[in-house]
Amino acid sequence: MHLHELVESLNIYKTDADERLENVDVKNIEMDSRKVENNSLFVCIKGTQVDGHQFVKDAEENGACAIVAEDTVDTTLPVIYVPSTVKALAVLADRFYGTPSKSLNIVGITGTNGKTTTTYLLDGIFKENNQNTAIIGTIDMKIGDKTYPLNNTTPDSLFLHKHLHLMKEQGVDTVIMEASSHALHQGRVHGVQFDTVVFTNLTQDHLDYHLNMNDYAYAKSLLFAQLGNDYTQNKIAVINADDHYSEVMSKASPFPFIPYGLTDDAYIKAKNLDLQADSTSFEVLTPNEQFKVESRLTGKFNIYNILAAISVAYQYRISSEIIQKALRNINGVPGRLENVDVGQPYSVIVDYAHTPDSLENVLQTLNEIKENRIITVVGCGGDRDRSKRPKMADASIKYSQLSLFTSDNPRTEDPKHILKDMTGHLKGDEFKVIIDRKEAIKEAIWTAKEGDIILIAGKGHETYQEVNGARHHFDDREIAKTYIEERMKESQST
Ligand SMILES: CC(=O)N[C@H]1[C@@H](OP(=O)(O)OP(=O)(O)OC[C@H]2O[C@@H](n3ccc(=O)[nH]c3=O)[C@H](O)[C@@H]2O)O[C@H](CO)[C@@H](O)[C@@H]1O[C@H](C)C(=O)N[C@@H](C)C(=O)N[C@H](CCC(=O)O)C(=O)O
Ligand SMILES: Nc1ncnc2c1ncn2[C@@H]1O[C@H](COP(=O)(O)OP(=O)(O)OP(=O)(O)O)[C@@H](O)[C@H]1O
Ligand SMILES: N[C@H](CCC[C@H](N)C(=O)O)C(=O)O
Ligand SMILES: [Mg+2]
Q1: Could you tell me the distance, in angstroms and rounded to a whole number, from the CA of residue 358 to the centre of ligand 2?
Q2: Residue 440 CB-half CA count within 13 A
Q3: What gap in Å lies between CA 166 and CA 90, rounded to an integer?
Q4: 273: Cβ below 6 Å to ligand 1?
Q5: Which domains are seen in the chain, by residue range?
Q6: Whose CA is nearest to atom 3 of ligand 3?
Q7: Which pLDDT value is given to residue 230?
Q8: In whole angstroms, what is the distance from residue 81 CA to residue 15 CA?
Q9: ipTM given for this complex
Q10: Residues that bind meso-2,6-diaminopimelate, according to the entry (predicted)?
């Protein structure tokens, strides 16, 4: 695409290169100088670690054809100056890839917990409704049956518009994506034309990044603001009516919203809950009908995720029969209350709870079904919200008979310091600190008695442990299975 055509949609306040823009053929757009090739347009982004403006020379050496910048840069290449390179990147990517989000049906999901789960539930419903779906989220990106690893739950705008284009080319009609608060704050979803947006809930997380809960809520509300205000469009916000922050979300958008929840005020609500150890059923009440749903997902919190998915399906006029069938067929979400069962006489459950609220929710659920003790193995990630650490330890102590506090992803922090943050205030003997996560899992398994439940929390589907920038293979499910089998063999031979 010609550069002058590409930049037409930008809010340019200065360029030193009007005449030079005419003859430049842009092959691709890059925000990372290390990926620049011949005829790349390099966009300088001010990051949290470094300022992309520093890398203009590298981009030039790698063959960039022009630069988009906010601050003055020293280069022989044509420079287009814009007030916000983050916004410009999204506008450029959207145009370069043919505005793919316009003709796709896009559902964006935000909230502290439940985004990935709701994404999977909706994907199941849309597929049952014969739609061709794609998912972008924490576990990976899925286009049809193919999966692609992602570095972030919500990738940057360049990646997004490029892959939305690819999805369209591959016949996808519906995209379900998670929108993290970091992504919303950093403008990663700029330019994505969402049709439906969903709010699950808001509780403490990421207070290392956001100033306080209000600031965190504001970041989430940007997804609702992004619906725009063109009333001719049929857009909708789906909001958890029972959450304290629901008003912040509904007020951020002029479009109508569907409140879901367990209270009478909700528009889509659940009644007659039946929560079993391995299944859940309840009646769904919509303004038009009432029907029963059955799911293999357990825990009251999952009823909220199911209601969120049903509310979106309701907006798309998907029949209750299709919703019921899809929900019955969904076995679970990888790493969310995932059972590791090789026939041992105690339960082992791997879950992604890595916030105080999610840990409390999961442990409450397990307490309702427990026959004997609960043993929790949990740690907290390094380089993340320190203030959630003691709260996660408290939740574990409150709801477990034994807590084994261990490492999660230490990243650049010393695991001992993280564990000190978690346990410094604790007294008593209902917990142990075992820094090595493998050892902690081993100890839990060798300590378990018949009927106990072991919860291994925090890493869920993750298949690595991140230490000082390196990711080593680590899978809670594999490790648990190894030790369960080891113990079973040992007991058979004695
Ligand atoms: C703290 C944070 O959010 N960082 C994100 C951010 O990177 P950054 O601001 O640190 O980038 P930077 O290193 O300062 O670089 C600035 C610019 O210089 C460029 N650069 C840099 C070096 C160079 O040699 N040349 C060059 O051009 C970079 O490409 C970039 O454009 O922008 C990047 C691109 O979008 C993200 O990948 C990166 O996510 C990091 C990896 C991360 O760990 N983020 C976490 C906190 C996160 O975003 N998590 C949420 C989920 C959270 C949840 O809901 O639980 C997520 O969506 O993943
Ligand atoms: N609606 C909910 N309310 C509270 N806790 C939940 C809810 N849904 C799931 N959880 C808990 O939170 C954990 C993470 O769930 P899920 O992956 O669906 O959330 P997420 O919002 O995608 O999280 P992340 O921000 O890390 O991507 C689950 O393993 C479970 O313990
Ligand atoms: N998206 C979350 C994932 C946390 C998962 C947990 N295992 C950790 O490493 O803290 C984050 O980046 O904060
Ligand atoms: Mg997620």
Answers
A1: 6
A2: 24
A3: 16
A4: no
A5: 3-96 (3.40.1390.10), 100-329 (3.40.1190.10), 338-493 (3.90.190.20)
A6: 354
A7: 83
A8: 6
A9: 0.98
A10: 384, 408-411, 458, 462
Residues in the chain: 494
Four-residue CA torsion sign, 21, 24, 28, 32 = negative
pLDDT band at 428 (very low <50, low <70, confident <90, very high): confident
> What ligand has the least distance to the C-alpha of 155?
1
398 is in an annotated binding site: no
In three-state secondary structure terms, 187 is: coil
CA of 124 relative to ligand 3 center, distance in Å:
25
115 is in an annotated binding site: yes
Cα separations in angstroms, 47 against 50, 53, 217, 218, 390: 5, 10, 22, 20, 30
Of 391, 384, 360, the residue nearest 201 (C-alpha): 360
415 assigned binding-site residue? no
Q: What is the pLDDT of residues 359-390, one digit of tens each?
A: 999 999 999 999 999 999 999 999 999 999 99
- The type of residue at 222 is L
Helix, strand, coil: what percent of the chain each, to 5? 35, 20, 40
Rounded to the nearest angstrom, the distance between the alpha carbon of 206 and the centre of ligand 2 is 14
Q: Which of 163, 166, 143 is nearest to 154 (CA)?
A: 163
Predicted pLDDT at 5? 87
Residue 489 confidence class, pLDDT cut points 50, 70, 90:
very high
- DSSP state, residue 295: E
Whether ligand 2 lies within 6 angstroms of the CB of 351 is answered as yes
The C-alpha atoms of residue 403 and residue 380 are separated, in whole angstroms, by 13
Tell me the per-residue pLDDT of 446-458, one tens digit each, with 9 for 90 and over.
Answer: 999 999 999 999 9
Integer Cα distance of 466 and 263 in angstroms: 41
